[in-house]
């Protein structure tokens, strides 16, 4: 069976979405680095931990919540642990809890206002409330499909 190529209409949608995601990611990364010395990955982990009960989560839960491979999370946690932003604690015989430290919470609290302002400036304020709802619906549809096709770890 011969595979179909993408039409000009499909290519435009695909390329535009990829360019948007990459440019948004780069701008957010620049803003976080300039204002807080946190990377977007640092911010993601800190935000997830701040929302977890007692600022603590199992490593596999963080991996799932961030949609990251186990090895990516391991390397990120090592960098953050070395900087004192998080701690890793044994949980049972095989588990690891990742714990938000006071230093990590302070870094997140200092970075959050500027991060939110930049997200609002670059993304939220560019769309109407209805467009935001529609965007979220479309993104959720694609994410749900991607997650359904993801092999179990």
Relevant terms:
Arc Repressor Mutant, subunit A, mainly alpha, 3 strands
Q: Would you mind describing this structure in some detail?
A:
The two termini are 31 Å apart. This protein has six helices and three strands. The chain has one domain (11-132): Orthogonal Bundle (Arc Repressor Mutant, subunit A), CATH 1.10.10.10. Helix content is 68%, strand content 10%. The chain is globular. It is mainly alpha-helical.
Concise structural overview:
This protein is mainly alpha-helical and 153 residues long. Helix content is 68%, strand content 10%.
CATH class: Mainly Alpha
Order of helices and strands: HHEHHEEHH
CATH topology: Arc Repressor Mutant, subunit A
Into which percent range does the helicity of residues fall? 55-70%
Low-confidence stretches: none
Mean pLDDT: 93
CATH architecture: Orthogonal Bundle
Please provide the count of β strands: 3
Query: What profile does the largest beta sheet have?
Result: 3 strands, antiparallel
Structural class: mainly alpha
Strand order, sheet with most strands: 1-3-2
Number of domains: 1
Molecular shape: globular
The CATH superfamily is: Winged helix-like DNA-binding domain superfamily/Winged helix DNA-binding domain
The Rg value, from CA coordinates, equals 18 Å
Distance, first to last CA: 31 Å
Count up the helices: 6
